[in-house]
Specification:
The protein is α+β, with helices and mostly antiparallel strands. It has two helices and four strands; from the N terminus they run βαβαββ. It has a single domain (5-73), classed as Translation Initiation Factor IF3. 21% of the residues are buried.
Length: 75
Amino acid sequence: MEANKVLDAKGIACPMPIVRTKKAMDELESGQVLEVHATDKGSKNDLTAWAKSGGHELLKDEEENGVLKFWIKKG
């Protein structure tokens, strides 16, 4: 999936992946896609809830070699 920006949040624990995702999302324009890579298992629930509450759309998420990947479209 094509992303406009990639955020590396691997190796950091909650709440930092959300804090960094929010900061990166602020740099994008509506409709653009942010790809987030995280290793904190709590990120799946956190990012899903955060995207929904912020009016963004979680397009896809997958796990690859212990890395959680998320594609979030800015609302």
